[in-house]
Design a protein that fits this description.
By secondary structure, the chain is mostly helical. It has three helices and no strands. The chain has one domain. The protein is 43% helix and 0% strand.
Length: 86
């Protein structure tokens, strides 16, 4: 394999799951610890594979639509209270 993109095209779902687990726990399936370089490259491979094979909401790091928490709470109208003098 001469390029990163060719390597990604050859990753099977089983290899993807194995890489993803290795990155998550920091170890290969045989118990050997990933080096920093292996972890970085494996994570890059996982993310690239997900971009080609999974919908956005199933990808690593997906946060979903975000709203400000204050939007859900009603804002009191202090200018025009029913008991206020105008």
């Amino acid at each position: 394999m001469s390029t990163f993109s060719q390597m990604i095209e050859n990753i099977t779902p089983e290899i993807y799951e194995s890489l993803k687990l290795a990155v998550e726990i920091g170890k290969w399936s045989d118990g050997r610890k990933l080096t920093a370089e292996q972890k970085e490259l494996s994570l890059q491979a996982v993310i690239a594979w997900e971009m080609q094979n999974l919908p956005e909401e199933q990808r690593t790091g997906y946060m979903g639509p975000q709203e400000c928490a204050s939007k859900s709470a009603p804002v009191p109208n202090i200018l025009f209270k029913s008991d206020a003098l105008h």
